[in-house]
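To whoever picks this up:

The parser on our side crashed when reading a file containing two proteins. I've narrowed it down to the boundary between the first structure block and the second sequence. Both blocks are reproduced below exactly, byte for byte. First block:
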Amino acid sequence: MPLILGFFVLAFLMVAGSIAASDAYLDQRALQSSCDGAVLAGVNAIDEQLAFTRGVGLYESIPLGPAREAAQAYLDRDASRSAVRIQQSAVTGGSTLSLLCVETSLLAFGSVFGYGDGVQHRATASARADFLD
């Protein structure tokens, strides 16, 4: 009887572990997709008119405008992305926006493996202004 019970516990742990791992993977993939969309929304907030009046050759002078606010507004538009927060944003070369997005999500069977409070996922994305190509 203890041997059969042990096999059932082992089978439960294997099934629960695979469900928790796939849940974490899918949450990470969804966060990366949201972060990619947010960085595109942010880089599209560049004021092209001002960039062209200052001269496109001077990348340092290209104004990104409210890029971070536009990226956060993109995330806040959909209820499924409302838990995603932009932790860091950086502008490199005056034309590329990089974001670090963070989200804490609950896992199925997470409390069995010590993640009852959820898992913190991180994703980075960057985009370059398309009118510079």
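<<boundary where parser fails>>
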Amino acid sequence: MFVGKYNNSIDDKYRLIIPAKFREELGSSCVVAKSLDRCLTIYTVDEWQKFADKLDELPMSNPAARKVKRHFSSSAADCDIDKQGRMTIPQELREYARIEKDLITVGSNKVIEIWGKEQWNSELDPESGDMLDASKAAEGLEIYGF
């Protein structure tokens, strides 16, 4: 399980150093793709396959389902992780997530999120440092057992 938040950056070759706590579970390869919140999601190969299988279950007759499939599948990139725990973030994905140098790596249970630092900070309440509208976002989640 991936948990925690880490401040890091990409180097001149656009490589991200995966936090040491995440490396063993992630292995030597992964899939990185656009998320829905202007961040990137890193999946283990197994988790990506599970996610892709769910995408395949969406009805092709539904225009919204086709757009969701395209959003994730067209942006997905297979990435290798070198012996130093680094992976290269493709340019299209860096641009989407507005990653320039500094970034935030967030464990999100079965996946890892990569945020450009400015984008991450724009999601935070300036006074408390908490995610904006977290309580509002939680409203309505009781249908999922929360």
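After patching the parser it read the second block fine. The first helix runs from residue 20 to 26. Residues 2-116 form a domain with the Chemotaxis protein chec fold (CATH 3.40.1550.20).
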